Each structure stands twice: as C-alpha cells, then as structure tokens.
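Quick one:
INPUT:
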C-alpha cells in the first residue's frame, strides 16, 4: 500500500517532527548543563542500562562506528564510561557506564520535563494507546 499523502497524515508527520525536535532541543540543553554534547548524553543514556559493543551503539544512533569511538573516548576521559572485554567474546570490547556515568545519566533523565509534562496530562489508557501506536509505526 503506498504511503498516504492526505492532509491528516501530513499534519501527524509534522507534529511527530515537532515533538522530536523539541525533545532533542531539551536533551541538548540538559546535556550542556553537564558539559556534554547531545550525542554524548544519548550514548551515556544507552550505556546506563547495559554495556554494549560500539557497533551496536552506532546502529542504535544510526551513525558510523568511528563517530561512536570518538564519543566513547571523550566519555572515558571524563570517567563516565569504561571499556571492558565482552565475557562472551574477549575479542570484542564493550562500552559500559561507570557508577559516575550512571549517576549522570539519571540526572539527565530526571531533568527532561518536556516529554513528561504533556504525557502526564494523558490518562494511563491514552499513554498506553500512544505507546502501542508508536511501536506499531516502528514495526514492533
């Protein structure tokens, strides 16, 4: 089925774009308060929940692995991230948030009000519906 180009679809796409732009703007502002770039903050956020190889980080961020290497280098210099061997394959290095990195990621997450405030105005059923629709849009 070809993509729809009707007025409603265009309006929804524009609204999604606006939400994403506002999220990244606030994320970048929050990151700057911790002397981080937005990209560094996003990597730190990913690593705060689990260690992962740099190729996987690059896939999640949709960027080149060489870019991720530079970001990890800078985060490592600040003591927020460390590299360690993958227990399943010692040839692979995992990037992992340090305790300080996890603490910084939590502070960043807690300072992001943009998404939380409007979502707080939605009921649990509305948030569940929105979540399910977004997952469906992403093929999940």
């Amino acid at each position: 089925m070809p993509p729809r180009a009707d007025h409603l679809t265009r309006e929804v796409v524009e609204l999604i774009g606006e939400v994403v732009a506002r999220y990244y703007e606030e994320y970048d502002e929050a990151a700057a308060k911790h002397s981080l770039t937005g990209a560094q903050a996003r990597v730190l956020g990913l690593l705060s929940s689990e260690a992962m190889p740099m190729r996987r980080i690059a896939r999640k961020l949709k960027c080149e692995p060489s870019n991720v290497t530079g970001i990890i280098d800078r985060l490592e210099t600040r003591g927020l991230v460390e590299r360690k061997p993958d227990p399943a394959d010692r040839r692979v290095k995992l990037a992992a948030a340090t305790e300080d990195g996890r603490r910084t990621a939590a502070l960043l997450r807690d300072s992001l009000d943009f998404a939380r405030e409007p979502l707080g105005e939605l009921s649990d059923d509305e948030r569940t519906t929105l979540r399910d629709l977004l997952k469906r849009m992403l093929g999940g």
